[in-house]
Amino acid sequence: MDLGIAGRRAIVCASSKGLGKGVAQKLAEAGAVVTLNGRNPQSLALAASEIRKQTNAEVHMVVADVTTEEGRAALLDAEPAPDILVNNAGGPPPGLWSDWTEDDWLKALHANMLAPILLMKAVLPGMIDRKWGRVINITSASVKAPIPELGLSNASRSGLTGFVAGTARQVAKHGVIINNLLPGSHQTHRTEGLMKRTAAEQSISLDEARRKAHALNPTGRFGTPEEFGAAAAFLCSQYAGYIVGQNLLLDGGAFQSTYG
What we know:
7 strands; single chain
């Protein structure tokens, strides 16, 4: 299927690995000009090189922390007129509600709520002027089904979800489409870290922790960055113009509800 985004310019935040890289890969395969972003220059350069070789796409990279004003400015200096913005950031660490300090909360809010909101504020006017745009926010399945030890993530990502719910409906008439993707457990470094934590807490092997986690999902496995990226690419496509302000779960059916 031709997604109709060949030549479109895309920013994908936190795209040196994991879900962000999976999205960048699929956008590049669809012919988009992709700007990758991350804080580690080595891993970012490796991701850019791999995607170029696999897709022959035009791929740029910006080493920056988009949770800071300077980082966002650097990213937008490199790609000032994106047609596609994919907001993504690693989640805050797990823990217990009673241990989180004000600084912990501020870091979580900056990374998982304010940074994506400020990037949207920066790029939406240009998209509106050009009468076309796509914004995808990678949040978490915990927005629908909170994970107790991930309270910092639950709260900050829910705040972003509330912002998108209103904003998406204000800009849709201009051909600018905003949606959220809610990943469940995927084969990423973050999930691997959570598996190691579970293994240590339960005094079991890492393989056993994975098997137990897989068994809890209807598919019997974790998702892959590739299939996640394909779903994101579709939401960025010419066919997604009537999908507005939605929260699409990609969790293998782990969240149980008749109506989602």
